[in-house]
User: What shape does this take?
Amino acid sequence: MNNIKYLFIFLLIFTSCSDDEEILPSVSSTYSNLHAPQSGGMGQPITGDFTKFDFSTGMTTTDANDWDIAFRGTTIIVNGGASTGTNDEPIRTGAAAAGIASGTFASVISADIAMTQDSATGPAIQSGSGNGWYNYSGPPTFIITPIPGKILVFKTRDDRYAKVEILSYYKDAPAVPNARVHESRYYTFNYLYNPNKGNTDLQ
Assistant: This one.
């Protein structure tokens, strides 16, 4: 009887310790000046490598597999799904997906939203003014502006979750960007990454 009692206590303590070890804190940070250059455009084919980003390290990477999202110009792709058919896309080897939530960065507290993966019909985060994360003013100002209240939510390549609020498309995030003065294709964004597998909490 005593042996059974001690075994029960041991299993209870072991289970509690295991549960505690599995819960890791979310990581919240701001990434500044992620450069996402491209060539072409203005009627010419768009080319150039995508700049890949890994939420688990909070850094850009050139690794073929360990990336979650990637940027080129105004286009954002995920490491999941299939090629959209544009030039120079990296091969997708993960299970990443994406969706867009409405609200502030603080108010979006769960990744439990509809998500899709990249496909031949286009990226999960749609491109084009007003379709995804940005508006384009056109002439005479030619400014790319993040749409307020649009929070990008991602499932990572390995079943973790993250959210992103894009703050600026211009180098050093000027308060009032000027397309003739400020360099474009430099992303500044807030992000929160939950390192716990399968956990959709984004607080």
Remarks:
- The first strand starts at residue 27 and ends at 35.
- The radius of gyration is 20 Å.
